[in-house]
Design a protein that fits this description.
Blueprint (H helix, E strand, L loop, with lengths): L6 H19 L30 E11 L3 E7 L6 E8 L5 E7 L2 E2 L5 E3 L4 E7 L8 E8 L6 E9 L1
Antiparallel strand pairs: 1-9, 2-8, 3-7, 3-9, 4-5, 4-6, 4-8
Amino acid sequence: MKKYSVLPLSFALMFSLTSVSFAENGSVPSNLPSTGSTIEVGSSHLQNHDITPFDRKLIDSVRHTGGSAYTKTLTLHPEDGKTLNLAIANAGSASVYVQITVDGKVDYSASRSIAAGKSDIISWTNFSGPGLSGTYEIYIYNKDGSNYNLSINARQV
């Protein structure tokens, strides 16, 4: 018959319940040991630390409908990440064409068509530098004047 020690489990439960009770009333006892450096919220000390979100939402679930082409200009900053992902879903009745201009020059490798009912993800990555920067202009159009039904997302990670 195997014997199991419940002591480690008891400690784990006790500590997890203790931290929940602290979080509920909004205060943390001052006698707890420090687990890292302290950053004062709202102070200039934050400017010297690398605190970044998981991604920067440049286009957040935009739905574009109607008869006019979609245009959007994005300004990227290296501290926001090395990769830009542009996701386009075409639920319209006609193919759409995507043209991307980076810092005033058409990026032909990113330009493409997306058939009706299809989707695509276009990505750029800066492998050698600190992150992507510059101005990215997105132009999505069709050639027959059909109404658009697009879902568009862009993230810099």
